[in-house]
Amino acid sequence: PKSVQAKAKGHLHDIWQAETRVNAEAAFDFFITTYGVKYDKAVGKLIKDRDVLLAFYDFPAEHWKHIRTTNPIESTFATVRHRTGKTKGCLSR
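The structure corresponding to this sequence follows.
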């Protein structure tokens, strides 16, 4: 629900913005205990992919900044997004 989204998003950010893998694991466990009872399907999917989601911390800390800011899907469609923004108002007076 929208009333919980902001808090949940903040707690998810605590996981991937943690300084170390230990802190990320602690934030992940906190997220599971906080939201696991009420939103068991969503939390179950996160638990299933826990090792993949935290694989980020297997890389050296120097690379984290670049990994965090890389979004290949968004950068691929950036030119399309810019084009559609300019052509939206073309047909209206």
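Residues 14 and 27 are 6 Å apart (CA to CA).
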